Structure formats: C-alpha cells, structure tokens
Amino acid sequence: MQAPLRRKIILAEMDNLNSKGINCSACPGHCCTAVANSMQTTPLETQDVLNYLRESGRWTMELKQKLQATVDKFRLDSIPGNGKRSYLRKTYDCPFFEGKSHGCTIPREVKPYGCLGFNPSAPHETEGKSCSSDQSLLLKRESAHPEESSVNTDLSKKYQLWWEKRPLPLALLEAEKSGM
Ligand code: SF4
Ligand code: SF4
Fold it and tell me: Nearest CA to 138 among 129, 128, 148, 150?
C-alpha cells in the first residue's frame, strides 16, 4: 500500500486538530531537536523516506554527509540494544529540521508515523507542554494495516537488516548500504 494511504488515519486527525486551531505553527520545533527528538523508524518507514528523497533529487552526497554527521555527533550507532527494542533511545537534532521558519522538510505523506502522531493538544503551543504522542491513534493506524508486519519482515530479509527500528538518519544510511 502506498505511503500516504498508510498515514491517512493520522493525517485526518491532524486536520481535525488544525480545524480547532491546534497545530505547530507557533512552536520553534522542540520535538525535532535534541531537546525531545528520538525518532526511530522501521524498514518500511525508512523506505518511504528514502524513496521520497531519491524521487525528489534530495538524496545527495551533501545530505548523506549531514546524516552521517548527526550519527557521529549524537553517537546514534552506539545505542545499546538488539535492534528489536532499544534499551535506550538517544535524542538528536533531526537533520531534516530546518529551524523555526521552515520546520520539517519531509512531507507529511511520507513522514515517520511517530512524528505525525506527536502533536499539541492546545492552541498556540509554543513550549511543547501540551504535546504528547497519541498512542491510541498510532495503534489504530497499526491495526488498520496488519499487513505491515510481514512487509517489514520481507524488507528485513531482502536487505538483510538486523534491526526492527533505528534512529532515522542511521536507518537511511544503513538501508542504502544494504541495497534498498
Ligand atoms: S508537536 Fe509540540 S513540540 Fe513538536 S513542533 Fe508541534 S507544538 Fe512544538
Ligand atoms: S522527520 Fe521531520 S517531524 Fe520527524 S523529527 Fe525529523 S524534522 Fe521532526
């Protein structure tokens, strides 16, 4: 199933929140920086972002160097764990965050589910105090797409990925290295 369809349930809720004036427009983006961001992606989520970056001409050497610099700076490749459930999630400045004025440069149709499910619950949020991850919404989306589990298993087998989730910059670099 295409990436936007797999995100439809979450996007509809974001539109619903936005219709009540609840959105991120007044916030400098705390959840995309090392203040609070520890986003990890599955092979399928990683593939969604990688496909977008390639199709839009953004998968350049410059971007790959930026991703590697993030991995090095925040030591994202030394997270303890077995790739199934990390014992520790490290926070990092997301390399796709372009500051308050530009925000996230990944379109919402391919954005990691966890990014989409993290939203404010009050209008004019500026500090992230009302923000949280909507677990029931994320679970609802997951339940609507039971096929995803086997798609991830197939991707892991095909590209010999040993992990189930990795921090986004590392996941993208490792996915490419594995031939994805
Ligand atoms: S989810 Fe919250 S912390 Fe993140 S950008 Fe939006 S308002 Fe800011
Ligand atoms: S992908 Fe976008 S929304 Fe997610 S952490 Fe990075 S900048 Fe923020």
Answer: 148
The amino acid at 148 = E
Q: What is the DSSP string of 80-108?
A: -S-SSS-S-PPP---TTB-HHHH-B-S-T
Residue 44 lies in a domain: yes
Number of domains in the chain: 1
Question: How many angstroms is it from 94 CA to the middle of ligand 2?
Answer: 6
Candidates 7, 58, 111: which one to mutate for ligand 2, based on the most atoms within 8 Å of Cβ?
A: 111
Q: What does pTM read for this prediction? A: 0.94
How do strand 132-133 and strand 166-167 relate by DSSP bridges? Answer: unpaired
Confirm whether 136 is domain-assigned.
no
The mean pLDDT value for 40-68 works out to: 98
Q: Is residue 129 part of a domain?
A: no
Domain that holds residue 160: 3-123+144-177
Does a structural domain hold residue 78?
yes
DSSP H or E stretch at residue 57: none
Indicate if the pLDDT at residue 62 is higher than 70. yes
Question: How many other CB atoms are there within 10 angstroms of residue 137's CB atom?
Answer: 18
User: For the segment 116-134, what is each residue's pLDDT rounded down to a tens digit?
Assistant: 999 999 999 999 999 999 9
